Amino acid sequence: MSAEVKENQAAQSGTERRLNMIEAINDALDIMLERDPDVIVMGEDVGYFGGVFRCTAGLQKKHGKTRVFDTPISECGIIGVAVGMGAYGLRPVPEIQFADYIYPGLDQLISEAARLRYRSATEYIAPMTVRSPFGGGIFGGQTHSQSPEAIFTHVSGLKTVIPSTPYDAKGLLISCIEDNDPVIFFEPKRIYNGPFSGYYDKPAEPWKRHPQSVVPEGYYKIPLGKARTVTEGDAMTVLTYGTMVHVVESVCREKGVEAEILDLRTLVPIDIEAIEASVERTGKCLIVHEATRTSGFGAELSALVTERCFYHLEAPVERVTGFDTPYPHSLEWAYFPGPVRIGEAIDKLLKD
Amino acid sequence: MADRPDADREAGANKPTLRLHVPEPKFRPGDTVDFSHIQVSEPGAQPRPDEACDARETAPLCHDLIRVLGDDNHAHGPWDPKLDPDTLRTMLGHFALVRAFDERMFRGQRQGKTSFYMKCTGEEATSVAAAMALASDDMVFPSYRQQGVLIVRGYDLVEMINQIYSNKGDKLKGRQLPIMYSSREHSFFSISGNLATQTPQAVGWAMASAMKGDSRIAATWVGEGSTAEGDFHSACTFATVYNAPVILNVINNQWAISSFSGFAGAERTTFAARALGYGLAGLRVDGNDALAVYASQRWAANRARANAGPTLIEYFTYRAEGHSTSDDPTGYRSAQEREEWPLGDPVMRLKNHLIALGEWDEERQEAMDREAAERVKAATKEAEKNGVLGHGMHQPFRTMFEDVFEELPWHLKEQAEQATRERLIKFHGGRPQ
């Protein structure tokens, strides 16, 4: 039974269960801890307390202290021991409390986890899912707001996955945990509790009114490497992921633009077929991410579209991104690629 | 500093001038070497605490030097592992094989058969005797100078040489720099080449073993220079926090390429003493004394196996040769150091011990060395049937793209096709001459 069918059935039978993204992630972890005795969850404050964002709430109590536990404040150590655990045969799911804190663990990720299968010619593997909240929009300042996904997409041997809804978060996370390659799973923290229109000064919306907050009970997977078509349209293709999926959707709705929005969901390996099919049909491509612009993942997307769809393009590829500055605290909403910046780019593409 | 208030400037005038200390080794090329500053403890004089003792009880042993073999070539004191002569002869046989292997592979690199090699001359005991003290299925996370562990565990010499030559028999498919072995069958982790990364990995493996109620422990090796890496600090922290069944072996061979141990902090304290701050048991051991190495490794293994805690062991030794085939130590240290090293040579010391016991003689040693050289020679010939490094193109180009991920994603498929196309253009018929 497909996940979509399940969802529909659940909705129709009136047993639908609506979760926010935190609850959906918690549900995925709970299910995997239950199904696979080799899955362990560890990280700073994830044990007894249940995580600073509550994603691991109740898991230690249910699954025990040797399956779900706190770690020293050492990202190098967290990822380093996860490599060793993977070599033993476990399937660790370490949490890095904020993506901004992941840098001390980069050598263990880039040089070790990502290359272990290759360098040992499959004798050893490091199957781990590194979960980490990322992105801004919560007044987190320059150390709680970054979007460093492009650093990881540049690494051979790592998969990078970013959900944008509770339904996807659960299904993708289960796929990541079952994957035999190391995966970075970035959770857009701005939308943990509800989708975001891009207007910081409007009341926050809860997930419960969003169709993708219907999260079925039990196990289901969403395959890695497959994009989701958020809205269909002919005006242009928008390639985006994470928080920006919702901002773009809201801007398009507001402007009455019928764009085809692709939520990429997995950055590596990227769903090139979906991108090509859409851009070839619409002839225009807008790329939106919150991360800084220069050498951001948008640069890769732009190059791919230009290389592969050039003769279908009716206008230059447009990029909307964060600025090439550290994420500022008080000027957060001046930095954020919100409705104004996205709106201008859409107008430009429509004019071309 | 024009913007400094006068009062501060006046106060500053009375303060002593600060000086930066940049460590400098005692001897440079051409210098006469005098190692009298090195403490050489009395063999047999160091106490041997209970294996399950409180880590703090090992504090005196972190500044002492555990020694068993004396100048009289006999074993002394509570750390004497009391190995039978057969075991000692086996150990000597491993030493002979490691040394013969190193000699031949070094020569092979000089003859252009491969790009790189690293000898472990002078440090053989720190891997051979340690590996013999572990169970054969205890998991080893080595650095790059622990070929002795593979020799002890009976790894096929031909496989080792295939890897060194990156030839078509190399089971690592020519992906790794020579000597970066991996053998899951021998519980030997894939060698990284990045330094100290293996240390938290060993701790993680040990944690996993404990989680699963397994009985196998983990042991890791790291050079004294690499203890400066953050990974080593993480390893010590995680080891102590989770009481992981792991042994952290620090091979203090005095030199990290051209940087002496002072650049890792050796001027102020010992590497074993690092254990104290973490609450790990710590031992400082004569690394050229095969019996002391064996006994200390066994002590730590028993401790770990009994859930009594991890141990950090400093093996005090000397890197008798260059860092690698790419290094020439005459450029930065005195050639006299090797001769003057106060703890001698581990192979000679074990041999002399067996002779003193009446269990060995020079003739048998010569025969053993000859036999080891023959074995290596035969293995080399066998491996050379699979080719030497040469142009390096022994594997199908497609293998370059395999194992990056479990499955080949579209972008690697495209790149693999490109590489195959290039092969046909570069080499007529697709095969290099």
Secondary structure topology:
The complex is a heterodimer of chains A (352) and B (433).
Chain A: H1 3-12, H2 21-35, E1 39-43, H3 59-63, E2 68-70, H4 75-88, E3 91-95, H5 106-112, H6 116-119, E4 129-134, H7 149-153, E5 159-161, H8 166-178, E6 183-188, E7 228-231, E8 237-240, H9 243-255, E9 260-263, E10 266-268, H10 272-282, E11 285-292, H11 297-309, E12 318-322, H12 332-335, H13 339-351
Parallel strand pairs in A: 1-2, 1-3, 4-6, 5-6, 8-9, 8-11, 11-12
Antiparallel strand pairs in A: 5-10, 7-9
Chain B: H1 6-13, H2 85-110, H3 124-133, E1 139-141, H4 147-152, H5 157-165, H6 198-211, E2 218-223, H7 230-241, E3 246-252, E4 255-256, E5 259-260, H8 274-278, E6 281-286, H9 290-305, E7 311-316, H10 336-340, H11 346-356, H12 362-384, H13 410-426
Parallel strand pairs in B: 1-2, 2-3, 3-7, 6-7
Antiparallel strand pairs in B: 4-5
Low-confidence runs of at least 5 consecutive residues of chain A:
1-5
Biggest sheet character of chain B: 5 strands, parallel
Strand-and-helix sequence of chain B, N→C? HHHEHHHEHEEEHEHEHHHH
- Relative helix content of chain B: 25-40%
Overall pLDDT metric of chain B: 96
- What is the domain tally of chain B? 2
**Count of the domains of chain A:** 2
Q: What radius of gyration of chain B results from the CA coordinates?
A: 24 Å
What CATH architecture of the largest domain in chain A would you give? 3-Layer(aba) Sandwich
Q: Which structural class best describes the helix and strand composition of chain A? A: alpha/beta
Q: Helices and strands of chain B: which structural class? A: alpha/beta
